[in-house]
Design goal:
alpha+beta; 45 strands; 5-stranded mixed sheet; 5-stranded antiparallel sheet
């Protein structure tokens, strides 16, 4: 597929005249990826209309978002030099390009080359791209005369490879090659469409042009031939044979990476522990071994020659005393310990032989590959990968089991070293054993306490719906750290905010040549994967001996409880027991580990193990590996902790792209009512899906009514429903006749990104009569998609995206948001299953258009998800929402219609990005609070890790100077009520679309995150808003109280300082504003110490939910219309009337004070108005003659006068003001 970019220059407006004749002769030069086009010039037209369309080749569609389209506008200037004048330029980034069908004209303001450039005007441009397939290239068939025979040159046997590959001499009569059949070069384009030779980059040379004209198939063949003839032959590397150990059974505890490994060779008084399997081949020698080895051990280290064949009478035990690495036996590598104790030597794995009761009683241990001679006990000592059996006198056994004679110095030095090492190892082992015993006792005690606490919580915790008494301190935010830090050296770029969880992955691909179990020669095969007491199975493939599943399963490493994995194949039988088809077993120690970013492990064919009956046949293709949740197969895998259920896997959802549709109903003509003896009363009813809006009734009651009203709808891509407008005639208050309709497909509606008017259209009104459409007038409409608005689907207070719908208006992202959903603690039971409480929890996070859902952890009050997700951030003043839900749909049933079976709400957390510092990781434990009818309840806690990364701090700060919403929200704003109705409609459209996904993101989950009832009436919220206002006014009220204390001389020192400061500001008024801003600076710097260290979330105290009347909560949860009895509704209505009366009186008092101010001039009280009027004129002369500083100082001293000069009665101005009349006495 090839991609092309289309650019249409439509018009320009208000260009700067620069041709010397108060006009401009503009033309444009379009530059994209080294390709340049020039439009036609418009003579002396500052508002030209071009409508010129050009196409550009997109060299790499994957990097198109990083390219820039630049349009420079010039004006032809009639001068001697003929130099054009620069009028401005437009730069359009690649991420604003839309696909064909979504284009719309966008008017970009012209910008100068520098900030001092004098430019103005705007340019209207349409930009879109489309993909077109490559045309198949067939070379022309050339009919030529048969060529003469070609005599091949003779080559000698000693010829060089270059001479052997030398081509044959060209012949004019030779057959045509691929190069000969190439089409002729494309002629050069005209001047308006040609490339600019001056600006063409090096990438567009002649070779590049020829390559672009050559079909891809021919290019591929040419490059392959060139590589075959030019690539040098590489010498074949010698084959390296490596051996790996088969470890013994591990203990149940998990050996974490980074812990000290247990040595392979043990003393006789310590039980041998298994060693960890190595993930890399172990050579016989290495530079590290040579460097760390001692001179004496180095003598025993050289490469051993192949051992001679053993004689027939030699014993097997003596034969095993030879170097095991030379025999192909398993070898393990001991990890380096402290300096001087171990040097990373490779030791062979020595299996243990069964001990006799006598040896077990005496504490002796027989080593495999050694022999007791002369009643002496032997031990194995390793030197650089070699096992040498020695007796206690330092005598070494040779390959035949006989003593090997050594000199005395060698024996003494060897025995001394062995004794010193033995004493050192015994001390180290004793300390290690004691530490292991203490650690084991502590772990057992901790597990016991945790089990008791879990049992107690299960018995004491209430089921969903009951109220629990929780300490208010539990509502606070808690800072935590990861319980298991990542081992040093382990990299996880995609999951660095959460703990690594190790899983065993099994991909079951397919099987072949299975045994026949049905009479027709087929079987219904399925695969069952088991490890310990956990098992998962695939779906059954019916009537196939070569079934294909391609399913992935994941088992948590912590819950395996076994040392082997068993994969069994069964034939499903609905009548009798399922038939066994075969099995494959894997030892966990032998399963490879995949680390990112390694490629996926290739599946292999495994032959099924035979049974005693011998009737098993066939093979199964499997891939088995150990990995983490960073593996790409994790999202599609069936996890063991989620059970074998549907709707439990983690998924990422993209919300549909939402548009506003504006329908302007202008008028209608020739509408024929059913009853022609009466004047019609017409209105228009518009419907789009579930959205129904109506216009008002036309004022002119005729067959040609007019309305001039706008209706707004919400539509989602891809468009499914049509817009239907129906003309209705109101016959009676309860009856309306439908006179005709207009159906408009959404794909035919024009799109715009600004407020420029679009052309209106006339649509024929059809009326269905006798199942045939009949013409019934016409309707004048103006319909368009509004791309300049942001379609809100969540409350503005915690919105997560503010980008407009049109992609042409998008701005680049400023950073990256990473969220790690770690785990939850202490969740309450949400339902009962099998007579006990249980919870099947999962998390949902929403930011922008991207929704994520974690996997469901079945039957666990402390689930661990450890999943990490990423979002692009376009504005820091946004909020991410994380909700925890309880899954009630483990078994997917497409025919399920039970509306009451909804996922339960556990709690949610909201985090504002502006409260996060850049490039810092916040790991906190947030309380999950739920407001129920009995009060607030803590449902548990959730651990989250958040990081907001930005590349440039200046770009982030620049966002704060830009408007929060797109410009169209300010130039043509929508009403508050209209915005809320559209938000509810957008939320409903999104929930319907997301519920169609697989697995579905159900509507109750989407509605819980988006909160459709955030503006509903609630007495609790009203009280919370009242206290919020008091909190805002607390600072001004505190300042007033301090000033009142100064006026009353409560503190003489503060009062004297206030008088001096007041005199200073009156004498030097230019210091008033500077001191005010200095005060603001000092206040902000002082409060920096008390800033929030962690991003805050939902606050129960601020919500007034800690102590609330259950009756008020019952009213808050009551829907509209109410479902309560009439008596309860009457009591609530009376209470609402009491609260409304308080608000009514407060508004009346404010109106009274304002009317008294107006009464100074309205002569409602002639005497009061006369006094005030006479007072204004002398006061004007006094203020004109007296210095303003003196007046201000006298007023200040009068206000702050000593209490001895004060009277308990109000001052004269206030007495006069209280006597002024108001209009309150005129109200009924």
């Amino acid at each position: 597929m090839g991609r092309k970019l289309s650019v249409e220059v439509c018009d320009a407006n208000d260009l700067l005249p620069k041709d010397g004749q108060e006009s401009a002769s503009p033309y444009c030069i379009i530059d994209y990826d080294g390709q340049r086009r020039k439009t036609e010039m418009r003579n002396q037209d500052p508002n030209p209309i071009c409508n010129s369309k050009y196409e550009f080749v997109v060299s790499d569609p994957e990097t198109m978002d990083n390219e820039v389209l630049e349009i420079n506008v010039y004006s032809e200037k009639k001068s001697l030099l003929h130099l054009p004048s620069f009028l401005g330029k437009v730069r359009i980034p690649g991420y604003c390009f839309v696909k064909q069908g979504e284009e719309a004209i966008v008017y970009y303001p012209l910008r100068g080359r520098t900030i001092f450039s004098n430019v103005k005007g705007e340019l209207g441009v349409k930009v879109w791209y489309f993909d077109e397939p490559y045309e198949p290239y067939d070379p022309p068939i050339l009919i030529l005369s048969p060529p003469p025979p070609i005599v091949a040159p003779e080559y000698h046997e000693a010829a060089a490879p270059e001479e052997e590959l030398k081509p044959v001499m060209e012949d004019p009569n030779a057959a045509p090659t691929v190069e000969d059949a190439m089409p002729e070069p494309i002629p050069e384009a005209p001047a308006a469409m040609a490339f600019s030779e001056k600006v063409r980059p090096a990438a567009y040379s002649e070779e590049r042009k020829m390559e672009m004209r050559t079909p891809p198939r021919v290019l591929f063949e040419q490059k392959r031939e060139a590589e075959m003839f030019q690539q040098p032959l590489k010498a074949k590397k010698p084959e390296v044979v490596s051996y790996y150990s088969v470890p013994k059974q591990r203990k149940k505890q998990d050996i974490r990476k980074g812990e000290e490994r247990t040595p392979l060779i043990r003393k006789k008084e310590e039980p041998a522990l298994p060693s960890a399997p190595t993930a890399e081949p172990v050579p016989s020698t290495s530079p590290v071994q040579k460097k760390n080895s001692s001179p004496k051990s180095a003598a025993a280290t050289p490469t051993q020659p192949d051992p001679p064949p053993a004689p027939p009478d030699s014993e097997p035990a003596h034969e095993e005393a030879l170097p095991l690495a030379t025999k192909g036996l398993p070898v393990v590598t001991e990890e380096p310990k402290e300096k001087g104790k171990s040097n990373g030597t490779a030791f062979p794995a020595i299996p243990e032989s069964p001990e006799t009761p006598k040896e077990k009683k005496e504490g002796k241990k027989v080593h495999w590959g050694t022999k007791q001679m002369e009643g002496e006990e032997e031990e194995a000592i390793g030197f650089e990968g070699l096992i040498v059996p020695l007796n206690k006198k330092g005598k070494e056994l040779n390959g035949n089991g006989k003593l090997k004679i050594k000199d005395e110095e060698t024996i003494k030095s060897t025995e001394a070293d062995r004794k010193a090492k033995k004493q050192e190892d015994e001390g180290e082992e004793d300390i290690k054993v004691k530490l292991q015993e203490k650690k084991k006792e502590a772990e057992e005690e901790e597990e016991k306490l945790a089990e008791e606490e879990r049992q107690r919580d299960t018995l004491e915790r209430p089921i969903h719906g009951q109220l629990s008494v929780v300490d208010p301190s539990d509502y606070a935010l808690k800072d935590i750290e990861l319980s298991t830090p990542r081992p040093v050296g382990e990299k996880s770029a995609t999951h660095d905010l959460v703990e690594n969880m190790h899983y065993l992955f099994i991909r079951v691909v397919k099987a072949r040549e299975l045994a026949e179990k049905h009479a027709e020669g087929s079987c219904d095969a399925y695969v069952k994967v088991s490890i310990g007491n956990q098992s998962l199975r695939t779906r059954a493939i019916h009537k196939s001996l070569n079934p294909s599943w391609n399913q992935v399963f994941a088992f948590g490493k912590e819950r395996m409880g076994a040392q082997s994995l068993e994969v069994t194949l069964w034939a499903e039988d609905t009548v009798n027991r399922d038939d066994f088809l075969g099995s494959v077993s894997f030892e966990l120690a032998e399963i490879p580990t995949r680390r990112q970013p390694d490629s996926p492990l290739a599946p292999q064919w495994y032959r099924l193990d035979e049974t005693q009956e011998g009737r098993v046949k066939g093979e199964v293709m499997l891939a088995v590996w150990m990995g983490t949740q960073a593996d790409e197969a994790f999202t599609e895998a069936w996890q063991s902790d989620s059970g074998d259920y549907a709707n439990t896997r983690s998924k990422v959802y993209i919300a549909p792209k939402l548009w506003y549709i504006r329908v302007s109903v202008v008028e209608a003509q020739d509408v024929q009512p059913l009853d022609r003896l009466r004047l019609p009363e017409l209105s228009v009813r518009a419907q789009l899906g579930f959205q129904i809006l109506k216009t008002s009734f036309s004022r002119n009651r005729s067959t040609s009514p007019s309305w001039n009203e706008d209706l707004m709808f919400v539509a989602a891509e891809p468009f499914e429903d049509d817009l239907i407008l129906t003309i209705e005639d109101r016959v009676s208050p309860m009856k309306e006749d439908q006179l005709g309709y207009v159906r408009i497909p959404l794909s035919s509606i024009e799109r715009r990104v600004d407020s420029r008017p679009i052309a209106s259209r006339w649509f024929d009104v059809e009326r269905i009569k006798n199942l045939k459409p009949v013409f019934h007038g016409r309707m004048h409409l103006r319909v368009c998609f509004e791309g300049g608005y942001h379609v809100m689907d969540e409350p503005m207070s915690y919105i997560s995206c503010i980008r407009p719908t049109a992609k042409q208006l998008w701005k680049p992202n400023i950073g990256l948001l990473e969220l790690g959903i770690i785990c939850a603690k202490g969740l309450v039971p949400m339902k009962t299953r099998g007579g006990r409480g249980t919870t099947d929890s999962y998390c949902v996070a929403k930011y922008g258009q991207k929704w994520v859902r974690t996997r469901t952890i079945v039957d666990n009050f402390n689930p661990c998800w450890n999943e990490q997700y990423t979002w692009e951030v376009h504005d820091p003043c946004t909020v991410i929402t994380v909700a925890v839900m309880d899954n009630w749909h483990l078994h997917f049933n497409p025919d399920e219609t039970d509306a009451d079976n909804k996922d339960g709400r556990i709690g949610k957390v909201r985090i504002r990005l502006s409260a996060l510092e850049r490039n810092r990781v916040y790991t906190n434990r947030y309380p999950l609070l739920m407001l129920q009818q009995l009060g607030v309840k803590k449902m548990g806690e959730i651990e989250l890790a958040v990081r907001f990364s930005t590349s440039s701090m200046l770009e982030t700060l620049q966002i704060y100077s830009e408007p929060l919403l797109p410009k169209l929200h300010y130039s043509h704003p929508l009403g508050v009520a209209q915005t809320e109705k559209l938000r509810i409609a957008a939320m409903r459209v999104s929930s319907i679309r997301l519920s169609r996904s697989e697995p579905p993101l159900r509507q109750e989950v989407v509605q819980y995150v988006l909160e459709p009832d955030s503006t509903a009436w609630s007495l609790r919220r009203s009280r919370a808003n009242y206290y919020r206002i008091l909190n805002v006014l607390s600072e001004p009220l505190a300042l007033i109280n301090r000033f009142d204390g100064i006026c009353k001389w409560k503190n003489k020192f503060k009062t004297i300082v206030a008088h001096l400061l007041f005199c200073f500001l009156v004498c030097f008024p230019r210091f008033v504003l500077p001191m005010l801003f200095v005060f603001f600076f000092l206040k902000g710097a002082w409060l920096f110490r008390f800033r929030a260290r962690s991003p805050p979330s939902i606050d129960a105290k601020l919500s007034q939910a800690e102590q609330v009347d259950p009756e008020e909560l019952d009213e808050e949860f009551d829907p509209i219309p109410s479902t309560k009895d009439s008596e309860i509704v009457r009591v609530r209505y009376d209470r609402l009337r009491v609260e409304a009366a308080k608000i009514q009186n407060m508004l009346g008092d404010l109106a009274t004070e304002g009317e008294r101010i107006l009464a100074l001039f309205t002569w409602r009280d002639p005497r009061a108005t006369l006094i005030s009027t006479v007072f204004w004129l002398p006061m004007a002369f006094i203020l004109y003659l007296a210095p303003i500083r003196l007046v201000v100082m006298l007023l200040g001293f009068y206000t702050m006068r000593h209490p001895n000069f004060r009277k308990p009665i109000p001052p004269v101005p206030l007495r006069f003001f209280k006597r002024l009349p108001s209009l309150k006495d005129h109200i009924l």
